[in-house]
Amino acid sequence: MNPIEIHNAALTRRQFFRSSGTGLGVAALTSLMGRATQGETVDAAGFLAGLPQVAPKAKRVIFISLIGAPSQLDTFDYKPDLQKRFKEDLSDWLKVQGQRLTTMTSGQKGFPLAPSIFKFARHGQSGAWVSELLPWTAKMVDDLCIIKSMHTDAVNHEPANQLICTGSMQSGKASMGSWMSYGLGSMNQDLPSFVVLHARNSSPFAAVQSISARLWGAGYLPGKYAGVALRSQGDPVLFLEDTPGIPREVRRTMLDGLNEFNRKSYEIVGDPETQTRIQQYEMAFRMQTSVPELADLSKEPENVHALYGPESRTRGSFANSALMARRLMERGVRFVQIFHRGWDQHSNLPRDIASQCKDIDQGCYGLIQDLKQRGMLEDTLVVWGGEFGRTIYSQGNLTDTDYGRDHHPRCFSMWLAGGGVKTGQVYGETDEMSFNIVRDPVHIRDLHATILYSLGMDHERLTYKFQGLDQKLTGTEPATVVKELFA
């Protein structure tokens, strides 16, 4: 007998419970203990057992993550009265506010007030203020719900991005998209239920924050719920093509044999990741057909490309990613996250934010209008925003035409569209300095709870047992569903 067989023959308490989940034991336990023993049982619609828990307003989500944090003062949070206070030193005022300073500005001798140099105007029937930086977004304000009162716990990018993407500033947690995939299941067996797209930024000077796969990883959830990143260059997925000299039929036979070995391993060891491996191999095989068809935009009509803008034909651009997101939604993908980096403007903000906004503005407009025209917006929730806001004071030198802004967790702006959201609404308000929230605060955890609510899930009841705890996207801190955001 080989060492592996000897090891498996030594039946421990853990091995007993593992193996009982694969044979007759599971039937007995299920009959005695009910649904709780069934793990990831799903219903006919693909929902996790017991879902939906509330009436769902949306079936799927597109989350547009602007990594680096766009300035709310230069996009949606208009503060005209600050123009007359240009260069006013806020040092004493900041002491009263108890502002937590980053190491990038804590050594400054002064904190000069920096009003936005960009023009704002009211738009739509809602009369929402929008910066001249976002002319396409301004055209669709009546399709949006703009939240001006977002706030977060983190003052630096890494923990702030982890918080907004995974619900925690600690590594190892399951990402937002993984939770959606886990709770809702797949609507297309030929594509992953959670897909990640990385859009290039066009500014050659922008500071680009590094991000890692933990922002779309499955954490303690089974690996099959992790996001699958589609590449913007070369094949969308590595090794998509068959190996030269090995036809598809031979590969199918090889895969069947490998899956049989994995099934036998699972019967012996009972490791659930073995089942995940089988499913991933099968998904990879099916994606060899589904992904090339998905990535082929040649059949998209000219009016669609005109809607998203000329960049929609350029792979890796934001407009192209937005169009891909719509195609993924059409094919039953539950959650698409588009990352667009380069929004960390500690200096040269007017130059760099203009370039960044140009990257995403028409693409966002095209996405919302495209979904709307196809009747998909009503059950697709679109979320737009960064990880925190920016300060009213300038980082470094301030001139009439140039300034930078440091990180600001106390308030920032995001917008939602579709998925039952009340359109033409501006929710929440900040003080005259865009420094503190004065009405209707929305924490990141509240946003997570609200997204889950729109999909028919109660954030308190969507849990996964790990290390003896019922893990949740919203964690252990209080979280509130902001029902006022919905029609």
Q: What does this 3D model show about the protein?
A:
The chain has one domain: Alkaline Phosphatase, subunit A. Helices cover 32% and strands 16% of the residues. The chain contains 13 helices and 17 strands. The strands form five sheets. Strands 1, 4, 5, 6, 7, 8, 11, 12 and 15 form a nine-stranded mixed beta sheet that branches. A two-stranded antiparallel ribbon has the order 2-3. A two-stranded antiparallel ribbon has the order 9-10. Strand 13 (429-430) and strand 14 form a beta hairpin. Helix 8 (248-269) packs antiparallel against helix 9, helix 10 packs antiparallel against helix 12 and helix 11 (318-330) runs parallel beside helix 12 (349-373). The protein is globular, with a radius of gyration of 24 Å. The model is unreliable at 4-39 (pLDDT under 50).
Topology:
Layout: H1 3-9, H2 13-20, H3 24-33, E1 60-67, H4 91-97, E2 120-123, E3 128-131, H5 135-139, E4 144-151, H6 157-166, H7 176-184, E5 194-199, E6 228-230, H8 248-269, H9 272-295, H10 302-308, H11 318-330, E7 335-341, H12 349-373, E8 380-385, E9 389-394, E10 405-408, E11 412-417, E12 425-427, E13 429-430, E14 437-439, E15 442-443, H13 444-454, E16 464-466, E17 469-471
Parallel strand pairs: 1-7, 1-8, 4-12, 4-15, 5-6, 5-7
Antiparallel strand pairs: 2-3, 4-11, 8-11, 9-10, 13-14, 16-17
Helix pairs in contact: 8-9, 10-12, 11-12
